[in-house]
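Forum > Structural Biology > Help requests

Title: Can anyone predict the 3D structure of Type I restriction-modification?

Hi all, first post here. I have the sequence for Type I restriction-modification but no way to get a structure on my laptop. I'd be grateful if someone could post the structure tokens.
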Amino acid sequence: MSRYQAYPEYKTVEIDYIDQIPSDWEEASISKLFEIKAGGDLKAEYFSEVQSESHPYPIYTNANDDKSIYGYTSKYFFNAHSITVSGRGEVGFAAFRDHPFDAIIRLLVLSPLNDCSCKFFAYFINAVIDFKVQSSAIGQLSTQQIAPYKVVFPQASIQKKIANFLDHETTKIDTLIEKQQQLIKLLKEKRQAVISHAVTKGLNPNAPMRDSGVEWLGEVPEGWEVTRVGWMCEFISYGFTNPMPSTSEGPYMLTATDIEFGRIKYEEARCTSQEAFNTLLSPKSKPEKGDVLLTKDGTLGRVVVFHGEYEACISQSVALLRLDKMKVLPEFLSIAFMGADYQSKMIFDAGGTTIKHIYISILAKMNFILPSLEEQKKILEVLSIKLGKMDALIEQADKVSSLLTERRSALISAAVTGKIDVRDWQPPEGAATNYSSDSLQEATS
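Reply #1:
Sure, ran it for you. Structure tokens for Type I restriction-modification below:
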């Protein structure tokens, strides 16, 4: 932020989240600047699921996305140039609305009482205010709760200039973030393809091939066995279905959300008591070293080898595969399942209407191409090198994306609280069309 000047003079304010502001800025509670209302029940006679000439006005929802639309209405209840603030879910997310609209129940709407830049205040709310919500099963922000929160601001013309500055700069940063996300996506797709080729076609491009007899696998190297997942396992099971007590320490309770590709997120997993672990669980809910864990509910197909570093049990959202290690190495099955072919097949076979599930009876019947143990070891060695390089590139792109996101947040906060002075800022000629590596270096410095 060194390229931006500070204001020449500041004054102290008594606000929990701001200590000083430029001397010519003001402070006020939200209720002094805005009329605060909440969305209500939708009226069926005005509602449509699709936008049309007769139903042109969006109905916004409680979501952390400024484009989250529930439906459309023929009659709007809130004017353009207002702010919506989510009262449930992602509580406190503010969005500037530049057109007439309606709001779903518990979505808060701030309508300005005087001339101001609503976009400036939307930026401020998102960057500066951390709302303390009602303590309940579902966090909720009410009109009464939001009213006393303080905001700081310059005169309206400067508000608009700051908002325009942030629109321009955040668009640049968002473009760079999107490029990094696209790179990460391409690298992950390439990673899956590299795995898939190695575990179904082998390492030798000149090896004689034969038809596997399985349409989705195609040709495979001669000498490789076409088998089924269940035939390589001593058993396939899933974890506990009954509620387990939660404690601050003890054996870990692993759910699908605690498992990523190749990693168990112990830092996020809950624990249960040793007594409950010993008395309430069957052995098939307790993974042993060398077992393969596979997410079967929610986000499907994430897989990891359990190395036994901690005592743990699994919930019903996780499948446990105990392998016949004379046939298949746990690391080989795990990495094979990360490949594009097996991932696509598991998702294709998944049952369920709204929420998909991998059924272990179907998983057990899934075809699998099995090389010898010696060949499995060679494939793992080669993939370790190739994937290590790819993972380093993914990690680097992810780090850049995180730095850009941090930079974006810091820039918004600095601008809307007066830490930087952008009153003399002017958009460059031909602005916001092409962002180069120079922009990336500038944004992350």
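The first strand starts at residue 10 and ends at 15. Residues 432-436 have pLDDT under 50 and may be disordered.
Shout if anything looks off.
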